[in-house]
Design a protein that fits this description.
This protein is α/β, with parallel strands linked by helices. It is built from 12 helices and 9 strands. It holds the Pfam family Glycos_transf_2.
């Protein structure tokens, strides 16, 4: 029997927290525990957590001082039962009822022995009022066009941390994550593809809340393509002005990861890192062509 711990972090999340918690309690596969680490909220977040800790298998911890996003996330993971699978959770999303069950089904299919493993899914974009903005993050970003593997993850992180379910072996690697890594989900993705196994779920299993009214994510395939073209044009313009930052965050994460694990990265995975990192100081057009080549090579 698989037991699941939900690891949630909170900070001033009173507006949407209750709705998220109710979606956890209404899962078809019930979590064994919900661990919440609150990063010194000053609103009503802690009162909501206390209310539900009296009624459900929810335990919350209030940090003595602000830890920040990554350190607080690592703390929540570390407090889960050692032999539990762990589902990562934001404070303001909504999980669909079958989210945990579907993640477990896929994760148990891909994991092998004691190897680290994760499963992640697509998601639906909703606005602050819960209205659907876009039915598929993967479609909107063009992520369904190509295979998801180590090479494609290096070039473009496609994993949202709030959709991840990890096995106990993966949980043991989280403690070594640097607190200054730009995105914890990209780091976890590299851990999975480098040292373990990864299950991709093309279905949308959570509603991800976007708060900015300035971000355009229309539920239209043509709009998504237009946005990607516009982004490429803006990147090219920045490069012409000497401000090339194409793949900048991806290079930062890959460098940190490769430096930390260089001695133990499997021989068959090392070339992917070396090829990608060699592009770091290349001109914009060379990096853009390498990106296009990667997409073409991995087209589905």
């Amino acid at each position: 029997m698989i037991n699941i711990s939900v690891a949630m972090t909170t900070y001033n999340g009173e507006k949407y927290l209750e709705e998220q918690l109710l979606s956890l309690f209404n899962q078809t596969l019930k979590p064994a525990e919900i661990i919440v680490c609150d990063d010194c909220s000053t609103d009503g977040t802690q009162a909501i957590l206390k209310k539900y800790s009296d009624q459900h298998l929810l335990t919350y911890y209030v940090n003595e001082y602000r830890l920040g996003v990554i350190a607080n996330f690592k703390k929540a993971v570390s407090l889960a039962q050692k032999d539990h699978y762990i589902a990562l959770c934001d404070q303001d999303d909504i999980w669909l009822p079958h989210k945990l069950q579907q993640c477990v089904d896929v994760l148990t299919e891909v994991e092998r022995g004691e190897r680290p493993a994760i499963a992640y899914s697509d998601l639906v974009f909703i606005d602050s009022d819960g209205n659907v903005l876009n039915k598929s993050f993967h479609d909107h970003m063009g992520l369904n066009r190509y295979a998801h593997n180590l090479e494609t993850e290096l070039f473009n992180n496609f994993i949202n941390g709030c959709t991840i379910l990890m096995n106990p072996a993966m949980r043991n690697l989280i403690a070594d994550m640097p607190d200054d890594v730009p995105f914890h989900d990209a780091w976890i993705g590299l851990l999975g593809y480098t040292f373990g196994d990864v299950g991709t779920i093309r279905d949308q299993l959570i509603c991800y809340r976007r708060h900015s009214r300035n971000v355009s994510i229309e539920d239209d395939a043509n709009a998504g393509r237009k946005k990607r073209f516009k982004r490429a044009f803006e990147e090219f313009a920045k490069a012409l002005n000497g401000k090339d930052d194409f793949l900048g965050v991806q290079f930062t994460i890959a460098q940190q990861f490769y430096k930390q694990y260089r001695q133990i990265i499997p021989a068959d995975k090392r070339p992917a890192f070396e090829h990608f990192l060699k592009l770091k100081d290349s001109p914009y057009l060379i990096k853009r062509l390498a990106f296009r080549k990667m997409i073409k090579k991995n087209l589905l």
